């Protein structure tokens, strides 16, 4: 049996790969087996990856909202679009969690030309220029021309003093970050020139997927009890992480929805980041 990817390419169906992705939801072994068995009779040759995802998502949600939320991370990152403005905000939060002070969307004058830096992060003596490459396409890959271009940008801004967070300092390094995949040439180029790169599945043990799962840095767009308009409202008002909502439930006041639904949203958020679920709001 084959599965049709977003690009139209047909690839062999891999049951173990599907089962492994289901375990990432943190559902129990028995729950994963139940979901997997319920998917089996609905499979057919040529089923799309989207149909397969929606089947798994719905069945996981039947068990627990937070399972489906965790399973939907890749889509949730795409929901930080359409232009990627909120993806940059989310990346800022990712680096802030590592102890950096961050600011987004700043323009600096390099040796030759001006550069808009998506995220600037400082900690100690280091200052990072972070380039965010956001993609809406499920199977999008970042070609080698992107790290080549970014390397030249980093070179153009190094050796110049800039004042961020009231302290003059110079850029010490650059990071290329994407919610998509990297081509093999991109990886080879980046590794040869020691360019820091972070993608959905790169590097192998500290990629975006693993960092989010290990550190509970889920974007608020993961939450399955929010509709598209509600997600947009929260993002617009500065609620980027699920953690933001848990720490400040007052964000829910921006939503025109019933109290019982707000409670359900908060419970899902609490469960997703392994925080104690409140008895009352």
Number of strands: 12
Percent range of helical residues: 40-55%
Multimeric state: single chain
Strand order of the largest sheet: 4-5-6-10-12
Mean pLDDT: 95
Largest sheet: 5 strands, mixed
Terminal-residue CA separation: 48 Å
Give Rg in angstroms.
20 Å
Molecular shape: globular
**By helix and strand content, what is the structural category?**
alpha/beta
Runs in which pLDDT lies below 50 for 5 or more consecutive residues are none
Number of helices: 12
The ordered H/E elements are: EEHHEHHHHEEEEHEEEEHEHHHH
> How much beta, percentage-wise?
15-25%
GO molecular function: endonuclease activity
Organism: Sphingobacterium chuzhouense
Protein name: Restriction endonuclease
Domain ATP-cone: 1-82
Would you give an account of this structure?
This protein is an alpha/beta fold. It has helices at residues 15-23, 29-39, 49-63, 65-71, 73-78, 85-97, 145-157, 184-192, 208-215, 228-236, 242-247, 259-272, and strands at residues 2-4, 10-12, 47-48, 101-109, 114-123, 126-133, 141-142, 161-164, 167-170, 173-178, 181-182, 196-198. It contains twelve helices and twelve strands. It has a five-stranded mixed beta sheet with strand order 4-5-6-10-12, sandwiched between helices. The protein has a three-stranded mixed beta sheet with strand order 2-1-3. The chain has a two-stranded parallel sheet with strand order 7-11. A hairpin with a 2-residue loop joins strand 5 and strand 6 (126-133). The N and C termini lie far apart (48 Å).
């Amino acid at each position: 049996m084959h599965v049709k990817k977003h690009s139209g390419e047909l690839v062999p169906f891999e049951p173990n790969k599907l089962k492994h992705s289901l375990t990432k939801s943190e559902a129990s072994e028995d729950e994963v087996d139940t979901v997997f068995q319920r998917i089996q009779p609905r499979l057919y040759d040529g089923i799309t990856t989207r149909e397969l995802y929606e089947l798994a998502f719905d069945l996981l949600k039947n068990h627990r909202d937070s399972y489906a939320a965790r399973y939907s991370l890749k889509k949730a990152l795409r929901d930080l679009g359409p232009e990627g403005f909120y993806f940059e905000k989310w990346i800022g939060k990712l680096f802030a969690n590592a102890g950096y002070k961050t600011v987004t969307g700043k323009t600096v004058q390099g040796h030759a030309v001006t550069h808009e830096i998506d995220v600037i992060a400082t900690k100690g003596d280091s200052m990072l220029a972070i380039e965010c490459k956001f993609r809406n396409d499920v199977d999008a890959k970042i070609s080698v021309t992107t790290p080549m271009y970014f390397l030249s940008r980093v070179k153009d801004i190094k050796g110049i003093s800039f004042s961020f967070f009231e302290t003059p300092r110079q850029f010490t390094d650059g990071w290329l970050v994407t919610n998509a995949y990297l081509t093999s040439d991109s990886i080879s180029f980046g590794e040869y020139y020691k360019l820091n790169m972070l993608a959905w599945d790169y590097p192998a043990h500290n990629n975006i997927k693993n960092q989010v799962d290990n550190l509970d840095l889920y974007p608020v767009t993961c939450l399955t009890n929010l509709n598209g308009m509600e997600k947009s409202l929260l993002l617009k008002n500065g609620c980027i992480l699920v953690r933001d909502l848990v720490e400040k439930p007052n964000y829910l006041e921006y939503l025109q929805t019933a109290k019982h639904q707000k409670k359900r949203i908060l419970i899902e958020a609490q469960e997703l980041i392994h925080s104690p679920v409140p008895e009352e709001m």
